[in-house]
Design brief:
The protein is α/β, with parallel strands linked by helices and 159 residues long. It is built from 6 helices and 5 strands, in the order E-H-E-H-E-H-E-H-E-H-H. The chain has a 5-stranded parallel β-sheet with strand order 2-1-3-4-5, with helices on both faces. It comes from Tenacibaculum caenipelagi.
Length: 159
Amino acid sequence: MVGIIMGSDSDLPIMQEAIDILESFDIAVEVDIVSAHRTPEKLFDYANNAHKRGVQVIIAGAGGAAHLPGMVASMSPLPVIGVPVKSRNSIDGWDSVLSILQMPGGVPVATVALDGAKNAGILAAQIIGASDKCTLDKIVAYKEGLKLKVEQASERVKK
C-alpha cells in the first residue's frame, strides 16, 4: 500500500495523478490531509505509524514552505517521495521545490518535478516492484507502452 498525504485539499487535483496511476497498477492507496503546520500531532502520528498499517511508501505533496515531506521523512522508516505543489501562496513553486529538495544528510526525500504527482506514483510503484514481481511486471508493461507510443508517433511523423 502507498500512503498519499497532502497539506491541503487544494492539493488534491495534483495528487490525484498519483492516486490514478497507482490504482492502474492495482496498488492500494490510503489518502489523507495532513498539514505540517496546522495539524502537527496528526503528522507525528501518521509518520510514526504508517508502516504499522502496511504502508510501504509515502508520497507527500505540499505547496508553499512544503515542510510535510521532510517532516514525515524525519520520523518514518519508510521511503518518502515529495511532490512540490505550485500553490496560490507559492513563489512560482520554487519555495516548494527547494523546501523538499534541500534535505539534510540522513533525512532523504525523493523529489519529483513541480506538480509531478504522476511520476511520484510511478516511482512508488517501482519501489514496491523491486520486491513484488506482479507489480514489477506491470511497470515493465507500462514502460513498454510508453515506448510503443513514441514509436507510433515517430511513424506518423515520417509519413
